[in-house]
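Same chain as my last thread, 303 residues:
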Amino acid sequence: MARHSDSEQEEYSDQYNESEQEYSDNDPMSEDDNDEESDEEESQDEQPDREHMEKLKRSLAHVSFEQLAEVQDKMGMKEFSKARAGGVDKTDSTKNVRTVSKAQILEDVKGAVSKLDKGARIRRTKNDMKRASKHSPMEVSSKRAIGRFREVVELNKPKVRDPRFEKLSGHFNQDLFEKSYAFLDDYKKSEQDLLRQQIKKAKNPERREELQQLLLKMTTREASAQEAKRKQQLKRERKKAEAELVKQGKTPYFLKRSEQRKLELMDKYEKLGEKNMDKILAKRRKKNAAKDHRRLPFKRRSE
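reply #2:
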């Protein structure tokens, strides 16, 4: 066999090395190996950061909503959701890490966690309770301090009682009350006479108006009291007549409220007299005529 020269051997070795390099560049398995090695290196680098993020997420469970809102305002909604999810954007198909720097997120989250006092919530001060604007409602804490001296067993404390409204003092008797304090009616009449004299002597119109208003209040109050007394008297008379009928063996009969009002109205008109009755009826007719006039249709315009 013919031997090759040294120069030919060197050329063959160079060509073989070049072909091997081309094959290694085109080989997909070698690329996958390189990618796996790079992914392993990245995962090893990211593992301590992820562990730290998990610790911070567990500690964030005790952070107040106000502090979380502050961190969210600083970072933005999208980046904040990424940080809470673990620091990776799930929308990306690749394994790229989020663009925002992890140092910034870790710093913001650490600032929120550092405000906690050994896992307990921070007590809010008066400055924290201030409103953001005058239109927003004021935020008030629902916590209340427990008193040092608590009553475990409640003691029987003496209660203040008013004998006027106690059952032990007996039932209220309207008739007895009116008889006992009947002298007050004379005092009220004398006060009204005195007010009338002061109204005549008063020169200041404002003072006179005040006295007239006071006299009007007293007269209306007296009229309503007299009306109540009249109704009470009618009620007593009906009860007395009904008791007599029951004694005779008849069944008891109780009037309806509408019938009671009719009897009271009839008694009122009987005591007024004919002249006063005519005046009242004339006023009532005038009032009813005005109501009927409002309901009538308007006259049509002539075409």
